[in-house]
Prior knowledge:
Blueprint: H1 14-26, E1 36-38, E2 44-46, H2 73-85, E3 88-91, H3 97-118, E4 126-131, E5 139-149, E6 155-163, E7 166-168, H4 185-188, H5 191-201, E8 205-214, H6 234-237, E9 244-250, E10 261-263, H7 272-277, E11 287-289, E12 299-303, E13 308-310, E14 319-328
Protein name: PhyH-domain-containing protein
Pfam families: PhyH
Organism: Fragilariopsis cylindrus CCMP1102
Amino acid sequence: MNNSNPNNPWSITNDEIDEEDNKEGRGDDDDDENNKNTTSNNKEFVLDDDRILYSLPSPGDNNREDWEINNNRDDMNKYVQTLQDDGVVVIPNVYTKNQIKKMIKQQKRIHKKVKQMMSNEDVEPVNKPYRHDFDKKRYLLMKHYEIEDEDDDDEEYEVIEISPGRYDYVYGMNDDERYPIFNSNEYCCPSILSELMDTLLVADYKSYSGCLPSDGKSNDGPWHRDTYILFDDESIDIKLPPYYYTVLIPLVPIGVENGATEFMPGSHKMTCKDSMAIDDSNESNRFQASIKESDLGSIIVFDGRICHRGLRNLTDQNRTVLYMVWTKKWYNDY
Ligand SMILES: O=C(O)CCC(=O)C(=O)O
């Protein structure tokens, strides 16, 4: 079509586009340095007005070396490949033992405070639907507690009881100066993780943190994906490039006794029906991510579309896992 609309100030004719193309080839535009932007293949685009193009630094660029621990480039390629193929990978030595100790201490303070707020006489849990998609959009009724932090202008937060004694909340985990470890670069974007996300999500992504504490003894969680089905048809979601990653950071060893996280490798690229049809008696078709005591500081990273579940906790011991969610900015985890 070559029909310029005189009523529409944004309409451009093909002739005008050709003219712009020719100009670009000749490079005879305004050569003000401030108006230039260099793209990754070094082709220069020049604005023809006085607006200034600005490139945002990548979120992982700041002071990486200060807190580099696991920064082996060969491993990096392996993690990227495994996440693309299997949808889940365990990365060792992302945090030091000292950092894990700080996280445990501050998370315990957070948990104590959350329990206090939950036991306030004004707080009544309400059964509300919680989105837990699998082959289709699915809601499970779960107890929700609305808590208020009187030390922070009565700011309101939600605590969800995923199964008896097993909770999910974000209180204290994001930009809260009272719990500085969770507010720090060393926690939020260790170099291996920020580089991984740079590679996989590429640009325009965001993250937030939360906590999954359990008081002991819980049942198997349901199989689910962490992503919401975008167009009520999972066959669309599984064809998209990655847009959602979950990161689990165990603060206690996790395994068969207290509930490993179980995954169906490859199911981020399959319909749930096809994934469930795969023979689960063959061990290689199921992956149970366990972290030993000596391996604390490791993280489990997975594509949010992978089918997974938390397995039962047979012990009376607390099982606390922190999580981060990294998504493209357009994704809304509501
Ligand atoms: O607690 C776990 O191991 C499982 C967590 C989980 O299902 C999730 O992050 O969606």
